[in-house]
Write a structure and sequence with these properties.
mainly alpha, DNA polymerase, domain 1, 2 domains, three-stranded antiparallel sheet, 5 strands
């Protein structure tokens, strides 16, 4: 299809075909939606832009218009979503030269960052305030995520069969497609398929809780039920407020879990494996501020150790 296009065609039409050829069926649904959203912005900001007109000035102008409504990081992501298609257009001879070279990324000032994770004392207060009944509810979901660091979709997909109480593990081999009406789907990546070690207290609690439940049905999603991230976050918000701790999201519980492990001295490699990160680089990037803080503590420890040798 791309070979049938000419330099006279609209950039938005080329980008739409490029997505169909290279991305549909090759990337996850959530990633495909990002490309489609980028297409919508091209159609909005540069509806008349033709391939032959995509030079450095035109491309920079497009980025600048996008940056008026978005933060710098979001503009960077937009740039990366477009760049692959544009370079292919250059290879096809539809765009004369690479217009993305030396592009300047601008953007609105970032909004004040919300609290992403709790400290150990705050987490203890939060978990102590949970109303854990005999029936499975979102309070149990919050406890599970806090103690395992699972992603939201991973925790939704947990079934009784995933627990191995003898080996004290929880198998993560699937996720719940809550954004598209439900159902089991593959994990985010191969590294996300893992066995997470769980503590004895969680074992005792869930061994009683799941007794007699269907082995292969999700614990937290009833048949035909639609689950929204916002619904569970609302429950967590009320719980945080009742406990008198900063309000965080379900994903913030995952950050909390990882942060506490790092502060406890668990290696980055082990934390990355437990979280299901594809590489340690992801873990290092996400928790750079904590790692830097730990490095500062290590320097102090080294200096004290050397001083004691005198």
């Amino acid at each position: 299809m791309l070979q049938e296009m000419s330099a006279e065609d609209l950039f938005s039409d080329f980008y739409k075909q490029w997505i169909a050829v290279y991305k549909e069926g090759a990337v996850r649904a959530v990633t495909l939606r990002k490309y489609m959203l980028a297409l919508a912005w091209i159609e909005k900001l540069a509806p008349e832009l033709r391939l032959k007109e995509v030079d450095r000035i035109a491309y920079q102008s497009l980025l600048n218009e996008y940056a008026k409504e978005h933060e710098k990081q979001t503009t960077t992501d937009f740039h990366h979503l477009l760049k692959g298609a544009i370079l292919d257009a250059v290879d096809e001879g539809l765009v004369p030269r690479d217009p993305t070279r030396k592009a300047i990324i601008k953007g609105k000032a970032p909004r004040p960052k919300k609290t992403k994770y709790l400290n150990q004392f705050e987490l203890h207060k939060l978990l102590a305030s949970l109303e854990l009944g005999q029936d499975i509810g979102w309070e149990w979901f919050i406890l599970l995520v806090a103690k395992t660091g699972l992603r939201f979709s991973e925790a939704l997909a947990v079934t009784p069969a995933d627990f191995d109480f003898t080996r004290q593990t929880l198998s993560i081999s699937k996720t719940w497609d809550y954004k598209n009406g439900g159902g089991f789907v593959p994990t985010k990546n191969r590294s996300s398929m893992r066995k997470v070690q769980i503590d004895w207290q969680l074992i005792v609690q869930f061994s009683v809780l799941i007794k007699g439940l269907p082995e292969d049905e999700p614990l937290f999603v009833k048949p035909g039920q639609k689950v929204y991230n916002s619904t569970v976050n609302d429950v967590l918000t009320r719980t945080c407020q009742n406990a008198g701790v900063p309000v965080i999201s379900i994903h913030g519980l995952r950050h909390t879990h990882a942060s506490l492990l790092l502060f406890a001295g668990v290696s980055i490699a082990s934390v990355a494996k437990r979280l299901g990160h594809a590489t340690m680089n992801t873990t290092e990037k996400t928790y750079l501020h904590i790692i830097q803080e730990l490095e500062n503590k290590d320097v102090d420890l080294v200096m004290r150790s050397l001083t004691s040798l005198v």
